[in-house]
Each structure stands twice: as C-alpha cells, then as structure tokens.
Amino acid sequence: MRDDLIDQVADLIREVARTIVMPRWRRLDDGEIHQKSPGDLVTIADQESERALTAGLRRLLPGSVVVGEEAVAADASVLDRLGADGPVWLVDPVDGTNNFASGEGPFAVMVALVRAGEPAAGWILDAPGDRMIVAEQSSGAFIDGVRLKTRADDPGAAALTGSISRTYFPADLRADLDANAHRFGRVTAGHHCAGYEYPSVATDEQQFAVFWRILPWDHTPGSLIVREAGGAVLHLDGSAYRPGDADRGLLVAANHEIWHTVRGTLLPP
C-alpha cells in the first residue's frame, strides 16, 4: 500500500467528522432525520458525510470504487461493486446513527479498503472522542499511533465480558443465546455501534462480541482491526469471515481460545 495513504485517509475521516458530523450532533431538526426501514434511521449527517468521504477517497486512490451504506440503501445494486477487480472502499458515514440521532453515543465514522475481496486496511474514528483506530493487513493495528494487542489468555467463561447483538438472530439461536448468556461474567446487549464493539474487544474492555446481521461496512473495518491486534473474527460455524459474507453470524473474540470458549458456552453441541 502507498506509504502515505493510511495517514491521508485518517486525515480525511477526521476532517469529515469535524466539519460535517459533529456540528450536527444534538442539533438535528426533525426534518433532518428519516426512517429507512422500521427502527433504522438516516440523518442529513450520514448523507453528507458519505458524499464527502466518497469524493475524497476517490481522489486519494484514482480508479477505486466506493460502496457506501447510504448509496446501497438508495440502490441495492451498488453492493455489487464489492466484487470489482480493482480497489474498493467501504464507507459507513455514521455508524450508530440511532445513537447519533438521539443525541447520545457511541457513534463512529468507518472506512475499509478491500482488494481482491479481502480487507487491506480499516479505519474507525470514535467521533465524539476523536480517537482513531487503524489497521493495515499484516502490519498491525493502532489506536492513535499506539500498537494494539489483544489479551493472550483465556480466563474461562465466568470471567469473560461481552456483548450479544441478538435482534436479528433466528428464533432458535436466540433461545440458545438467552439460555446460556448467564454463564459469562457479564453480557450486555451491545451499544448499537459496531465501531464501538470491535475496538472494545481489541482494547480488552470486553473479550467478545456476537452479531447476526453482518453488513460489510459495519464489520470489515473492525474485523481487520481485531485480527491485526491478535484476535479472532469467525462465523459461528468457525469459517473465516470475508467482506462479502452476509450470513452465518459472527463471533469476535480477543483470541482463538476465547473464541472457542464463547462458542462452546453459547451454542453447545
């Protein structure tokens, strides 16, 4: 990857957050918030952030294409660009929109670069905290320039903290999750923001996170960050996650031993 590209993308994301996203936090009018589907909001900040990021990323990498959350919402065929031969940007202009729209946090701005179907780099900006988490394939993960390393031990289920975003799970799997979640030290319902959940695994704030719906802009940046920090990001059946995947759920863990502990505890054979 071009030596300066990581920093240039980080600068672009920070500029968009500073000039477009944060000025509208807690200042949105009712007419600037819309419902894409029941419970799924979009705001003027999402739309303007995506336009600015799309234009800037194309300038930084001529010949690349962009797959943005709001562009796909307007035209589902945009998602087909993820299979393009050249470099593809994935953009989540405001991750955690419902939090953002309610004047709460967390929320993030996220970008990933995909080459040949695999994540090459990922960026997550904790917008309220101005905290940048970056990863490059085979080069590690960093938070504001400091290398991230996930924990290396597995203290056992009773000592683990994690989140389970259970909303989209099929009923039978949700029943298993509900029946077994008490076996962990602490389980939350998550923060409705993948841009929070992934870094929290990488920094040991929690040791695992479980998802069912895995839209590529939500999970590609964080999955690379956690893997480059030493963690495991695998489907519930143990298969590898790739940006084009859309089912089989996803279990994110601080290391492979914890992944197996969580999988076996939540969904025993």
Write the layout of secondary structure elements.
Layout: H1 5-21, E1 33-37, E2 40-43, H2 44-60, E3 65-68, H3 69-74, E4 88-95, H4 97-101, E5 108-115, E6 118-126, E7 131-136, E8 140-143, E9 146-147, E10 161-164, H5 171-180, E11 186-188, H6 194-202, E12 208-211, H7 216-228, E13 232-234, E14 250-253, H8 256-266
Parallel strand pairs: 3-4, 10-11, 10-12
Antiparallel strand pairs: 1-2, 4-5, 5-6, 6-7, 7-8, 8-9, 12-14, 13-14
Descriptive notes:
This protein has 269 residues and is an alpha+beta fold. It folds into two domains: 5-147, Fructose-1,6-Bisphosphatase, subunit A, domain 1 (Fructose-1,6-Bisphosphatase, Chain A, domain 1); 157-266, D-Maltodextrin-Binding Protein, domain 2 (3-Layer(aba) Sandwich). 33% of the residues lie in helices and 25% in strands. It contains eight helices and 14 strands. The protein has a seven-stranded mixed β-sheet, sandwiched between helices. It has a five-stranded mixed β-sheet with strand order 11-10-12-14-13, sandwiched between helices. Strands 1-2 form a two-stranded antiparallel sheet. α1 packs antiparallel against α2 (44-60) and α6 packs parallel to α7 (216-228). It is globular, with a radius of gyration of 18 Å. The mean pLDDT is 96.
